[in-house]
Design brief:
The complex is a heterodimer. In chain A, about 25% of the residues lie in helices and about 30% in strands. By secondary structure, chain A is α+β, with helices and mostly antiparallel strands. The two termini of chain A are about 20 Å apart. By secondary structure, chain B is mainly β. Chain B is globular and about 70 Å long. Chain B starts with a strand and ends with a strand. Classes of the chains: A alpha+beta, B mainly beta.
Chain lengths: ~250, ~350
């Protein structure tokens, strides 16, 4: 993390507030803190905020706020220490059916790492993953914290269509496809939960700063959840904790 | 119910507005119109709110049949629009009657044409916008570009006004070679001095065939990085100029992804994006460096002038009614141009 936050212009209507040049939990926490403060104080002239791994992109209207004024307001804000009581953490459970046609690459992932399929599932479900940011396609989450014990390179040649809800591994990253897209990740399972729904507000299930916990389900449970999702009565399990329940 | 029949869709005609503001944090691209100037003027001409959705047509325009009378305005690239086979002027609102056929051809000048209808295009809003994001099949007309035989529904506004016209002097001139101004950053420190000089060199860059609503790939002198071309992905705006390891810049446009992992040497200033949006493959760009402060002076002046244009358009409204077939005539009296509507009265 930088000692001093960098303010970098991005054209005449956006600036980048850069906190560091690495992917780290500390930077992510700092970004969440500034995001929270910005949602509370609402600086006139700011049109949109986009938090990423190590920065916040701030879109502003120059007719409403001068650049220098905006930067000094942001500086003041970021100097303010967050009321460091117990910060609440949201752990979102993602029910996942591993293997078979839902996760056609799980055996490859096991072989590649010289472990069994059951061990892959145990390792994958045993850690909670921090959502660093969303990007790439609507609802796509960049997760951090996967064990190197199940790291596997991408497919040599990407598939043309991966079903929505697919859970995969690419190198030492894990993640899910919120909608059907082409992709090169090793697929290990699938969730019946809707990660992205343009009709809902907000349109995504997960936000930057949340944690994802994969929970292994069997075919029967998968089918049941899928039916409930379709009928609009499935309730996602979300654990709100001070951090004691976090598996890292 | 639909009241416009799409006889021919043209090459790439989509419903667009200002785009999805506030949803980038969910990974949702903004989309929206490429040329905001022509878009705002088109809406102003028909008496709409500036942010109403319009049709954006690229390369080859559509052919539409009106099944209900409404007010229409066409701005942007010149596609030689015709109403029932007769050429009609652009940058001016007119009344199309039931049964009229509006046909646009291929581009003569510029690249994208905007068609505004007095009223609302009836498509559902997705995340507060009617813009089509074709790549994910979201928004607009069924999430896609228009196709032959589609049927559009317009909620015709009684407040729409025909006969508004933007003065000739405000009509942009679309040229194949343009100076495009840009502000350095946020990753200009990743480039060598020679690299930055190359970017702003008078030789400029050519727009390649890989140029669409998502981005324009350019070709010219390679821009040298000091070390790496990759960064930890961060936010990207309309106009941001990415330079991957091969040194050839890419300008990100309306349908860009929200984040990107290549170094951004600079970003095109907002006032020059409408110029860029009207440039085609093979056209040339010469980047010109401006400071952020200069960019803001330019932007304020641009918006001041836009307010002036809006006022001119609104005052151009001449109250008249069509009571029979009308002919338009352009008259020049003592060097001043007039538009006269001539109609037979009983």
């Amino acid at each position: 993390m930088y000692k001093k936050i960098k303010y970098l212009p991005l054209g005449d209507k956006a600036l980048v507030m850069e906190f560091g040049n690495e992917i780290s939990k500390d930077i992510n926490a700092k970004i969440r803190n500034v995001m929270r403060q910005l949602s509370e104080v609402e600086i006139f002239g700011i049109e949109e905020l986009l938090p990423t791994y190590r920065s916040i992109m701030i879109m502003y209207e120059p007719l409403k706020i001068e650049y220098e004024n905006l930067v000094s307001k942001l500086e003041m804000l970021s100097d303010t220490k967050a009321e460091n009581g117990e910060e609440e953490i949201r752990i979102v459970e993602i029910p996942t059916l591993y293997g078979n046609e839902y996760g056609p690459d799980i055996e490859y992932v096991a072989d590649h790492n010289h472990i069994t399929v059951d061990e892959v599932i145990k390792i994958h479900t045993g850690t909670d993953y921090l959502v660093y940011m969303l990007g790439f396609t609507p609802g796509f989450t960049y997760l951090g914290g996967m064990s190197e014990k199940i790291a596997t390179p991408r497919l040599p040649s990407p598939r043309t269509a991966i079903p929505a809800g697919s859970v995969g591994i690419a190198g030492s990253q894990t993640g899910m496809y919120p909608s059907e897209t082409p992709g090169g990740w090793q697929l290990i399972g699938r969730t019946p939960v809707k990660l992205y729904d343009p009709e809902s507000e907000p349109p995504v299930l997960l936000n930057a700063g949340d944690y994802v916990r994969y929970v292994s389900v069997n075919q029967q449970e998968y089918d049941e959840i899928q039916r409930m999702v379709k009928e609009g009565r499935y309730e996602i399990k979300i654990i709100i904790t001070g951090g004691s329940e976090l598996r890292e | 119910m639909s009241n416009i029949k799409v006889l021919k869709a043209g090459f790439f005609t989509t419903v667009q507005d200002t785009g999805r503001i506030g949803y980038q944090k969910f990974g949702m691209p903004v989309a929206g119109v490429m040329d905001s100037f022509s878009y705002r003027v088109a809406n102003c001409l028909v008496g709409n709110d500036e942010k109403e959705a319009v049709l954006e047509a690229a390369f080859l325009g559509p052919e539409l049949e009106f099944q209900e009378g409404m007010v229409v305005a066409i701005t942007g690239a010149d596609m030689r629009p015709r109403l029932n086979g007769k050429e009609i002027p652009m940058w001016e609102s007119f009344k199309a009657a039931k049964g009229d056929k509006l046909s646009l051809g291929g581009i003569v000048k510029g690249l994208r044409t905007y068609i505004a209808f007095g009223g609302e295009i009836c498509v559902e809003e997705v995340n507060n916008s009617k813009s089509t994001f074709v790549k994910s099949g979201i928004g607009g007309y069924k999430g896609r570009k228009l196709m032959d035989n589609d049927a559009l529904a317009i909620k015709v506004s009684a407040a729409a006004v025909p006969g508004r016209r933007m003065e000739q002097k405000y009509i942009p001139e679309y040229k194949p070679r343009n100076k495009i101004r840009a502000v350095l950053g946020p990753q200009d420190d990743y480039f060598t001095e020679e690299g930055i000089n190359a970017f702003f060199s008078p030789y400029g860059y050519k727009i390649t065939k890989e140029a669409d609503r998502m981005g324009y790939r350019l070709e010219g002198e390679a821009i040298a990085h000091k070390d790496k071309a990759d960064i930890i992905s961060d936010g990207a705006t309309f106009g941001a100029v990415q330079v991957p390891a091969n040194g050839q810049p890419i300008i990100l446009m309306a349908d860009r992804q929200t984040t990107g992992g290549y170094t951004k040497i600079a970003a095109v200033i907002s006032t020059d994006l409408p110029v860029l949006a009207q440039m085609s493959p093979g056209n040339e760009i010469i980047f010109e460096k401006v400071t952020l402060q200069e960019a803001h002076v330019i932007y304020r002046e641009y918006e001041r002038k836009f307010a002036e244009i809006k006022a001119q358009i609104c005052s151009s409204y001449k109250k008249y009614e069509f009571i029979g077939p009308s002919k338009k005539m352009r008259l020049i009296v003592n060097g001043i141009e007039y538009m006269a509507d001539v109609q037979r009265i009983e």
